[in-house]
Amino acid sequence: MPTPQLFHHQQEFQLESGATLPGFQLAYTTYGTLNPQRSNVVWVCHALTGSSDFTDWWCDLFGEDKFYDPREWFVICANTLGGCYGSTGPLSINPKTLQPYFHTFPQFTNRDVVRAFDLLRQELELERIHTLIGGSLGGQQALEWALVQPDVFERLVHVASNARHSPWGIAFNETQRMAIRQDPSWESSTANAGKEGMKTARAIAMLSYRHYKTYNESQQEPGHSITEDFRAASYQVYQGEKLAQRFNAYTYWLLSKAMDSHNVGRDRGGVEKALTQLKPRTLIVGVNSDLLFPVEEQYFLHEHVESSSFYLINSSYGHDGFLVEFEQLTEAIKDFYQQDKLKAALNYEEQQW
């Protein structure tokens, strides 16, 4: 069974902005057992509203008799800094004030998040990671981490994400934050501040996560006499209510801002130059119907990451296709690993000659 654990960093942690946290904790989940060579580590970075329990939201990829079987692999995922699934975030107690952070929690970037992840990696004495994998926000963090620690990761699986967040994506996120700001409770310092606004924000987000075809196939009315109370309308309300039961507006706000600030070219001479510094063998995966991270963003990565592999998932689920089309994603990773075996075999034959 997956094992939830906590990592405590007791020293002051400076963020990219110059702000500091007086230490933090990360909730993380492990599954499987390290082999004697410690060469079977897979590190997962979760999406915006995900948790460290990757068997919950990527259950068809991880588990017994799945592609990443815990009998063969040691899989780990940490809840992001600023999260609300056990890691230090806005609802945590600030040890300096003995009160929850709420609005005073400092803004952070993906670069800050992966530096925190790396402290956990060092604590666990994981010198090499076989595969680093992430989708969406998690894909942004995985790419950033592979640049921050170029000699740690052997392979990178970058799914439905980008090298720099687009004006289109930023506009979607700001529109959601506008909804949160319109909630009068957002100005208060309480655990439920902005909750109603976040429900609307989530409904807006669903329009970027899915696709016209998704709604047409799943929310179409069966008859011709309906004039109100449409399935698509109730579905939007349901999605907002569902998220509000497990998330908070502070974390939603902070993580969407971290996504906006994603730019691997920052302080590295631009995106193209930064991507030439990427060392892991890289698989880039896109979803053909993705509206939020359109496939041209993954084609751009493929063009600028030397010797990268590319796989296009065909799906009517839009951006969420990376969470749904597990058979195609499994096939993509399987083919990616198979290339390693073929290269090893060719190198062996050359050595024999």
Automatic annotation (TrEMBL):
Coiled coil where?
none
List locations, semicolon-separated: Cytoplasm
InterPro entries, per database record: AB_hydrolase_1, AB_hydrolase_fold, HAT_MetX-like
Enzyme Commission code(s) on record = 2.3.1.31
- Record's keyword annotation contains Zinc: no
Q: In which pathway does it act?
A: Amino-acid biosynthesis; L-methionine biosynthesis via de novo pathway; O-acetyl-L-homoserine from L-homoserine: step 1/1
Q: Where on this chain does substrate bind? A: 202, 320
Q: What exactly does this protein do? A: Transfers an acetyl group from acetyl-CoA to L-homoserine, forming acetyl-L-homoserine.
Q: What is this protein called?
A: Homoserine O-acetyltransferase
* Reaction(s) this enzyme catalyzes, per UniProt: L-homoserine + acetyl-CoA = O-acetyl-L-homoserine + CoA
Q: Which Pfam families match?
A: Abhydrolase_1
| Subunit and interaction comment | Homodimer.
HAMAP family noted in UniProt: MetX_acyltransf (MF_00296)
Record-stated family: Belongs to the AB hydrolase superfamily. MetX family.
**UniProt entry keywords in alphabetical sequence:** Acyltransferase, Amino-acid biosynthesis, Cytoplasm, Methionine biosynthesis, Transferase
Q: What is its main location?
A: cytoplasm
Signal sequence, renumbered to the chain:
none
Mention one GO molecular function: homoserine O-acetyltransferase activity
**Known Gene3D superfamilies for this protein?**
alpha/beta hydrolase
Q: Where is the AB hydrolase-1 domain?
A: 41-325
* Name of the gene this protein is made from: metX
